[in-house]
Write a structure and sequence with these properties.
mainly alpha, about 80% helix, single chain
């Protein structure tokens, strides 16, 4: 295995490199970017293949089969990351995703299988995702100094936005050129590109981390210990509740309600694109600012205010008839959500005990990447009953509660990032 101990700058007496000049961070960032692009291409290819091979209801079932294991097993993934080490888990996860997508591409090139093949691959992919996401969240503190973690999270945010913005057109181009099989091939190659970069990483042990002793006890006990640890932590406990509320209030309306809102107001598909462009630009700008600045004073209070002001912006989307105004409002939503996301991730990684970092990362990812996608049918039903406007208002209210929690709990409001 490639994980070896490195001497930190503080010990060696040398000046620490900023994250954007650290080869270790850049290797991790390159691998994360390739993997995120592969994710985007894969999901576009899966949805296209499912729609092409069956009815809309059957396609929805395939996508649900892919999403359910990620929600059910996310917390287990955190336990696995803490027991085996996050780098081992990330390497294995990307290797399995690479083989699964390339194998599916080969099957599609040679035959026309039923939807059950897509469902099986989706099930495998969702299960591996549940292992990958907590592990990748536990890596940054092992490759960068504590005072660089906000900058690393800003870089991660930029990479994520690049994957979302570039992955969809790349996948669409691959489908247009050679069908779903070609798109799955592109996704598999992108996952393969991440492997040598991950293999070249050299991790530093975190303070108090025992890398040599095997972990005793059962995985179920580890999970219970992790949840008890979060419940008793003065910062992480309320932070997890705040993150969960924000994710549940934000993800569904943005993904489902925005399309219906654009249809009702005559903005069309191009209008949705402009609103999403505004959101992506705002989120990318926030990540870039954190990458350059490296630290935000009074991080807990800034996070709470960004949630609260972001909730106001989300609610405003329900009342703006003009497209250009909606795009500007979406820009503010993205800017505030991007700032909030970077600060949340940075606080998670600086506050968590090293022994629990995988499990804490799993809980922090559970809302947006596990539970929120499963809320899409409920969001769609609510929009069908009351329309998108009231649903956006409810969404804003939930996000406002999240921000209020961050501001009213003294330990969270006073949380700081290391200097």
């Amino acid at each position: 295995m490639t994980t070896t101990t490195t001497t930190t700058a503080a010990v060696s007496g040398t000046t620490a490199r900023p994250a954007h000049r650290d080869p270790q961070v850049l290797r991790w960032l390159g691998a994360y970017t390739a993997s995120t692009l592969g994710d985007s291409v894969y999901y576009l290819a899966l949805s296209w293949a499912a729609v092409s091979g069956g009815s809309p209801a059957q396609a929805g079932l395939v996508m649900t089969v892919a999403a359910v294991p990620r929600a059910l097993l996310m917390l287990v993934g955190g336990v696995v990351a803490d027991r085996l080490g996050p780098l081992r888990v990330v390497l294995a996860s990307d290797a399995v995703r690479c083989l699964a997508t390339l194998g599916l591409a080969a099957v599609l090139f040679l035959a026309s299988p039923g939807l059950w093949v897509l469902a099986v691959v989706g099930l495998v992919f969702g299960t591996v995702d549940a292992l990958f996401l907590p592990a990748v969240g536990a890596l940054p503190p092992r490759i960068a100094d504590r005072d660089q973690l906000a900058r690393v999270q800003g870089m991660r945010g930029i990479a994520y936005r690049m994957g979302a913005v570039l992955g969809a057109p790349l996948g669409g181009l691959a489908v247009a050129v050679g069908g779903s099989a070609t798109a799955f091939t592109v996704a598999g190659v992108l996952f393969a590109l991440s492997l040598p970069l991950l293999y070249a990483l050299r991790l530093r042990p975190l303070p108090g981390e025992d890398t040599g002793a095997p972990r005793g006890g059962t995985a179920l006990r580890d999970l219970a210990d992790g949840l008890r640890y979060l419940r008793g932590h003065r910062v992480l406990g309320p932070l997890m509740i705040s993150i969960l509320l924000a994710d549940l209030g934000f993800v569904g309306p943005l993904n489902i309600g925005l399309a219906i809102l654009a249809e009702q107001r005559g903005w069309g598909a191009g209008g949705i694109g402009w609103v999403l462009f505004g959101f992506g630009t705002g989120a990318g700008t926030a990540s870039l600012l954190l990458t350059v600045r490296g630290r935000v004073p009074r991080a807990g209070a800034v996070m709470g205010w960004s949630m609260t002001l972001g909730a106001v912006s989300i609610g405003a989307l329900a009342f703006v008839p003009q497209l250009y105004v909606a795009a500007l409002v979406a820009l503010s939503v993205g800017l505030l959500a991007g700032l909030n996301g970077v600060l949340c991730n940075s606080l998670v990684q600086t506050e968590a005990d090293p022994a629990y970092l995988g499990r804490v990362s799993a809980v922090s990812s559970l809302g947006s990447l596990g539970l929120a996608p499963l809320s899409f049918p409920l969001t769609g039903a609510a929009i069908g009953l009351w329309g998108p406007g009231p649903v956006f208002v409810v969404s804003a209210s939930v996000c406002a509660v999240s921000g209020a929690l961050a501001l009213l709990v003294p330990s969270l409001r006073r949380a700081e990032l290391p200097k």
